[in-house]
Amino acid sequence: MSFPWLTVIGAVPLVGAVVVLLLPRRGTLPQTVALALSGVPLVLTVVMALQYSPGAGMQFTETHDWITAFGAHYALGVDGIGLTLVLMTVIISPVVMLASWRDGEHGRWSTNSYFAWMLALEGLAIGVFAATDVFLFYVLFEATLIPIYFLIGGFGGAQRSYAAVKFLLYSLLGGLLMLASVVGLFVVSARAGAPSYLLSDLVQVPMSESTGRWLFLGFFIAFAIKAPLWPVHTWLPDAASEATTGTSVLLVSVLDKIGTFGMIRWCLGLFPEASRWASPVVIALAVFSVLYGALLAIGQDDIRRLIAYTSVSHFGFIVLGIFAFTSQSASGSTLYMFNHAMSTAALFLVTGFLISRHGSKRISDYGGVQKIAPMLAGVFMVAGLSSLSLPGLAPFVSEFLVLAGTFTHSVPAGVLATLGTVLAALYILLMYQRTMTGPLRPDNAMIRDLGIREVAALTPLVALIIGAGFFPQPLLDVINPSVDATLQHVGVSDPSPGVPVEASSEGSTP
Amino acid sequence: MTVPTDITFTAPTIEYATLYPVLIVFGAALLGVVVEAVLGRRLRYQVQVVLALGALVAALVGTVLVAGNLQEAPGTVPARGLVAAEGGLAVDGPTVFLWGLLLLFSVVSVMLFAERRLEGGVTAFAGQAAALPGTEAERAASTQGIEHTEVFPLVMFAVGGMMLFPAANDLLTMFVALEVLSLPLYLLCGLARRRRLISQEAAVKYFLLGAFSSAFFLYGIALVYGYAGSFTMAGIDQAVSNRTGSSALLLGGIGMLSVGLLFKVGAAPFHSWQPDVYQGAPTAVTAFMAACTKLAAFGALLRVFYVGLGGAQWDWQPMIWIVAGLTMLVGSVVALTQTDIKRMLAYSSIAHAGFLLVGFAGVWAGDGVTSLQSVLFYLTAYGFSTIGAFAVVMMVRDAGGETTHLSRWAGLGRTSPLLAGVFAFFMLAFAGIPLTSGFIGKWTVFSAAWSGGAWPLVVLAVVLSAVTAFFYVRVIVLMFFSDPVGDGPTVAVPSMLTATVVAVTAIATLVLGVLPGPVLDLAHNAGAFVR
Q1: 8 A C-beta contact, residue A328 and residue A401
Q2: How much is the ipTM here?
Q3: Is B153 on the interface with A (CB under 8 A)?
Q4: How much is the pTM?
C-alpha cells in the first residue's frame, strides 16, 4: 500500500491540537509548537503536490470500509480542485498562526486552546476537501463547526457570543437540510442495489428527475449558507466583525470555501441534471450577491464588516463561475477560491494589525496613517488592489476567467457582474483613502509600523498574490483537467452552453 | 361435590433455560425485600447494592448466553427465538437485544442510585419515606442520618417489569408487565431526600395519569379481544389479516392501546406528565426512567404494532405520522422556553421520542436500515447519553442540593471545564452533531423512515432538529460564554460510582458515534419478531 498522504496531512494538525492543549501554559510555547506543527502539513502537501499528475482523476486515494450498514467509507482522494484547496488550507494556517501570536491572550480561555482549536480546524478542513465519500464529507463538514464556534465565541469582541450562536444556527440549519439529502441519497443508493456513499458509486446510481432535484436543493442550501450567498449571508458580517483577526481569516479564507467547493464537487458531481435545472436561479442569486455585497461594502464604517461584505461579493463571482458551466468560468472560480483566500487573508491581517494598534474598527477613526506607517500602508494597498482585481495581481486572472466564461453563457449576467468590479474599486479605494491618506489625525500618532513577525506573516501572502498574478499557469494546469472532467459529467460543453447533453450517469427511472 | 372427570389439568411448561435472566432479577428483588426487613441498618446498604448489581450483571451474562442459543424460528421472515411460557412471552432477537440494553442501563442507573458521597454520606433518597415533609419525624430522621434502602428492591421490580413488557406475547401479560414496571416507578419518584413536596407531587401526578393510561390500555385490550377473540399477538394478527368482525372494535382497540403505550413512551399529546415527573423525581430515578422506561415502552410498542396489528398498518400509520410530528414539535418548541435543566431534558426526551417515532412510522423491513434496527440503535444511543447527562446534573450543586435552574449553570465551563465539557458533549450528541452517537441515531431513524416513504416526516424532523439544537447550544453558551452569577455553581466531587457512570456513558456516546458498525450489526442481526 502506498503512503497515506492525505490521512497524514490531515491527522498531523488534529493530533497537534491535542498536544498543544496539553502543553504547559508558559510564555509563547503553545504558539511556537502550533506554528511548527502547522508547518508539517505544508511541507507534506508540497511534496505530495510535486507527485501529482494533472488530468489523471482522483489521486492519492485511500478507501476503507467504515460503517458497512450505511455503505459509508473512509475514502480520501484529491483531484486538481481538491489539491488546490488543500494547498490553500495548509498555506493559510501557519500564516494565521504567526499573525495571531498574541490574539489568544485576551480570550475567555488560554492561548493553548486558541491554537488547539485552530489546528483542529485545519485538520478537519483538509479532511473536508479530501473526502470522496458523502458520509465522511458530511461528518467532517459538520465537525468543522465546533472549532470555529469556540474560536468565535471564546476569543472575540463584545458581541462574540451572539455572533457565534448566529453562525452556528445558520450552519446547523443548512447542515441538517443536507442531512436529509444525505439520507435520501442512501435510500436511492440502497434501492439501486448495495448502498454506498462513495462518489464513484453514486454517480452511477440512476435517479429520477424530481428526486435528484430535491436532493440537490438540500445540498445547495447548505453550501449557499456556508459560501455565503445572498440571502443567507447575514451571519458572516457579524461573525467576521466580532471574531479575532485570525479567526476571521480562517472563516472567510478556508471555511467558506467549503461551500463553493461543495457546489462544484458534490452538487455538480452528484446531481448534474438538477444543477443544469437550477443554474438560472443560482446565476441570478450570484449576480445579486456580487452587486449587493459590493454596495453594502461601500456603506460600511466598520473595517471588518466591510471586508466581510466584499467577500459576499467575491463569493458571488465564484458561484457565478461554477454555474455558468463553461470551462473558463469554472476554472476561474476554482482559481478564485485560492486567490481570494490569499487576498482576503492579507487584507484581514493587515487591517487587523492596524486595528490592534489603535483599538477601533471604525474607518472614521483613522486618517493619514501612511505617513507614519509606510510599510503597513503599502501592504494594505497591495492587498486592497488585489481585492479589486488589479491586473498583475492574482485575483485578476481568476475574475477575468469567470467573467469571460460568463459572457459566453449569458451576456446580461456578465454585464451586471462586471459592474461589481467597478464597485470594488470604489469600496477599496475609499477605505484606503479615508484611513491612510490625508493629514495625520492626532490620535493616530501612536500607530507603529509593521514589526518583524507581522512582516513575516504577510510576506508569503503578498508573494503569492504577485506571483500567481504573473504566473497562474502552474495552478491552472492542475485545475483545468479536473474542471473539464466535472463539466463533462454535468453534460455541458463550451461552444454551445446551456444545451443539455444526455450524460451517461442519467439512466432510466427505476 | 364431584370434580368433573373430563377436565384434565396439565402443568404449564416454562422454558427456564431461556427465561432465567428475568427470574434472576425478580429473585433478587424479592431477596432485597427480605434483606431490608431482616438485616441491621449498618449492613443494609452494602448488601443491597451488591445484591442489585450482582443480580443485574448475572442477568446480563445470562441474556448474552440466551442470545447465543436462540434457534431459527419457523416462518416466512428470518427470525430467531421462541414463544415461551405457554404463549405468554416471546424471547426473540429484539427481545434479547432490549434485555441486554435494559440490564446495561440498569447497572449504570443503580450505580447512580448508590451514590452517597454527594449527599454527605447518605443516598439521595428519603431517610424515612413515611415521615411527612416538614414534621418533627422528618427532622429527626435527617439529623440522625437515617437511611433506608428500599429503592434497590423497588428498582429491581421495575427492571423485571421492563424486561417482561417488550417480551410479552399476549396483551394480558403485557398489561401485567406494565403494572409491574409502573408501580415501583411511582414510588421511586416520590422518594427524594430533598425537595420532598415537589417529589411527592411528581409521584402523585405520575400515578394518577399512569392509572388513567393503564385503564385506557386495558379497555383497548378488551376491544381488541372482542374483535379478534384472542389475546396473543399471533391470534390478533390472524384476525386482523383476515379482516374478520367489526372494524369499529378494531379501530377503537388500536386507539386505546396506543394511548396506553404512547403515554409510557412520552409522546404528545400524552406527554404532559413528563416534565413534572422528570423535574420532581430524584435525578437518579429520572435518568433510569428516561433511558429504561422509554426502551421498554418502545419495545412493547413495536411488538404490538408490527406483530399484532401489522395487518392493519394502513389504519394506524397515519395516526403514528401525526403523533410523531406533534411529539417532535411539542418537545422541541416548548423546550426552548425552559429555565430548569431537568425540565429542559424532559422536553428534550419528548422530542427524542418523536424522532424515535419517525423511525417507527417508516415500517420498513426491506433493504438498507430497517425500522426495527433504527429504533433499537437510537434507543441505545439516546439511553447512554441521557443517563450521562442526568449524572452530570446530580453533581452540580449548591447549599440546597442539586441546582437545576439554568441561570445557576452560568460559567460552569470556567470553574470545572472537564465536567462542563462532558455535558457539552452530551448536548452535542442530543443535537445530532456528527462524531456523536446522536448523529448516527438520527441518521438511522431518518433513513428507515425515508425508505418507508415517510420523507415528509424526515424533512420536518430535520427542521425541528435545528430547533432542538438551539436550546442544546444555549446550555453550552451558558456554561462557556457567560460569567457566573454570584458564587456560581459548585461541582461536588462524586464517588467512583458516579464518576464511572459519566465516563462510561461519555465513551459510549463517542464510540457509537465514530464506530457504530458493531452495534448496528447487532441490531440488524436481532432479526424480526417471532410470532
Answers
A1: yes
A2: 0.81
A3: no
A4: 0.88
